[in-house]
Design brief:
Layout lengths: L1 E4 L9 H5 L5 E3 L3 E3 L9 H5 L5 E4 L9 H30 L32 H6 L1
Antiparallel strand pairs: 1-4, 2-3
Length: 134
């Protein structure tokens, strides 16, 4: 909450000017509160013997219609981009086949074939599972 002066009640005593920590109150003939500088502490209202300082609600923050529209537009663009990326990925993986194995087949890799890798000419490499079986 902020405060303002009821000019019909203010006599210009200056007590409120002296207690305002934000220095938001000036005095000429009557006291005047700079609503932008007022922090809403209430020190001025507590010291005013005549009740000339009254609470007023803060100004509501106005939303512009363009901000939510811009956010919605940005979200829609991002969703569309993700959807397009998924479609590209899906079409590229179906046209090139499976990405696993790299075309080596079942016996490919280390140790397969004659003389390749650690296994020598055994058809399959000697890995930990094959060693246990023998």
């Amino acid at each position: 909450m902020k405060y303002q002066i009821d000019e019909s009640l203010c006599v210009g005593c200056g007590l409120c000017v002296n207690v305002c920590p934000a220095r938001a109150i000036t005095l000429s003939d009557k006291a005047k509160i700079d609503i932008d500088r007022c922090t809403g502490c209430g020190a001025c209202a507590n010291v005013c013997k005549l009740g000339a300082i009254i609470e007023v609600p803060d100004k509501p923050v106005q939303e512009t219609a363009s901000v939510p529209a811009a956010i919605a537009s940005g979200v829609a663009t991002a969703i569309g981009a993700v959807g397009n990326a998924i479609k590209r990925y899906a079409s590229s993986s179906t046209s090139t086949g499976s990405r696993r194995g790299g075309g080596m087949g079942r016996g490919g890799g280390r140790g397969s074939g004659s003389g390749g890798g650690r296994g020598g000419g055994m058809g399959r490499g000697m890995n930990k599972q094959n060693k246990r079986r023998r």
